[in-house]
Amino acid sequence: MRRTHYRALVQSIRDKIAGIVVLLAGILLAASLCFGGPANPSPPNMFRPASTPADAILHISIFVLIISFVIFAVVFGLLVYALAKFRRRAGDDGREPPQVYGSNQVELAWTVLPILIVLVLFLATARVIHSVEDARKPPDAVEVIAIGHQFWWEFRYPSLGVVTANELHVPVSDPAHPTPTFIRLLSADTDHSFWVPRLAGKTDLIPNRTNSTWIDPHEAGVYVGQCAQYCGTQHAKMLLRVYVEPQDQFNRWVQEEAKPAQMSDAVSEGRGIFETTACINCHAILGTVANGRFGPDLTHLMSRETIASGAASNTPENLRLWIHDPEAIKPGSLMPAMNLTDQDLDALTAYLETLR
Predict the structure, then answer these.
(1) What's the distance, CA 142 to chain centroid?
(2) Distances in whole angstroms, Cα of residue 43 to Cα of each of 39, 47, 61, 326
(3) Domain ranges for the chain
(4) Distance between CA atoms of 284 and 274, rounded to whole angstroms?
(5) Does domain 142-246 have CATH number 3.30.1370.10?
(6) Rounded to whole angstroms, how far apart are CA atoms 225 and 193?
(7) Which of 350, 338, 355 is nearest to 276 (CA)?
(8) What pLDDT, on the 0 to 100 scale, is given for residue 16?
(9) Which of 7, 70, 281, 327 measures 20 to 30 Å from 314, CA to CA?
(10) Distance (Å, rounded) from C-alpha 13 to C-alpha 7?
(11) At 95, is the pLDDT very low, low, confident or very high (cuts 50, 70, 90)?
């Protein structure tokens, strides 16, 4: 009976070791793909930081992984040693080996070593948190207010007079002359979380509370992020894009965004439909009577590459479908279907296409 129990115990240990080996192989494969993948700026990848906060998070993550791997290697080695040395041999009478009790050295080792490991990890993590959370804001830093809505992002630049949605534009931060972007995080309804893996860690947006984060991207490009806190039906499609541009290009974008909407007599019918329907209750267009705050600002709608918070490309076909039936693109969206006739829908779509 004892021998059967011993065999079952050994088999259980072998199964656990096999599972750990498979898990470790998967982790190493994932890490190799992250480090060795193509230089594509779009996929969210914390192993390719492009900003100081993300770089600090990567370094502390690698440090923790190294310590964890050393612990794993030691424990795994001891298990292999025990299985090899105390395996069942021919002529084994099945008696238990001599038991060791009350070893001060062993008890001291497994008490002191874990305390030291936890202390080192705590101090290293606290240092990184302090460096990120208490970073000094230079006078020429760009200030942005990010407001999380179900299920889209609102971005306001108070000192620049710009309001946009879902696509955050910031300048490249030259290490010689840093131009970081400090982001104040607010929520209009429920909990959200701002996360762009290549630029910074996750920071929650909590109703009736102000949080903040900052980024200083060193490379121009488009960085993808999303809400990392479950906030409702379309949480997974509450996407965002950060456009990092050279300073002169960013300045041109600001100048264009600060202008009122373009007016054209050719689309006056569509504008009239927009201003006489429920659209103006939710959306704002600079230079018109529309001043809603529940939905994205549409002043320069067609300058954005996506609609529905990144759920679809910003094309005339998708825009028309979005107005006609939002559920077809984003089920659970809080935007209602406008139930317009085909003629009115075409006119309204044509008007919105002029908002650049």
Answers:
(1) 20
(2) 10, 11, 19, 26
(3) 142-246, 265-352
(4) 11
(5) no
(6) 10
(7) 338
(8) 52
(9) 281
(10) 10
(11) confident
Give SS3 for 187.
Answer: strand
User: What is the crossing angle of helices 342-352 and 316-324, to 10°?
Assistant: 130
Q: How far is residue 86 CA from its own chain's centroid?
A: 49
Find out whether 191 and 229 touch, Cβ atoms under 8 Å. yes
> What tens digit of pLDDT does each residue of 149-204 get?
999 999 999 999 999 999 999 999 988 888 999 999 999 999 999 999 999 999 99
Task: Tell how many helices (H) and how many strands (E) occur in the chain.
Answer: 8, 12
Percent over 90 (pLDDT), the chain: 63
Return the structure tokens found at 315: 């094309």
Instruction: Encode 113-137: b = buried (16+ Cβ within 10 Å), e = exposed.
Output: eeeeeeeeeeeeeeebeeebeebee
Q: At residue 333, does pLDDT exceed 70?
A: yes
State the sign of the Cα–Cα–Cα–Cα dihedral 305, 311, 313, 317. negative
Domain 265-352 has CATH 3.40.50.10860: no
46 with 198: CB under 8 angstroms? yes
**pTM for this predicted structure:** 0.79
pLDDT in tens, 206-251: 999 999 999 999 999 999 999 999 999 999 999 999 999 999 999 9
* Dihedral angle sign, alpha carbons of residues 254, 259, 265, 269: positive
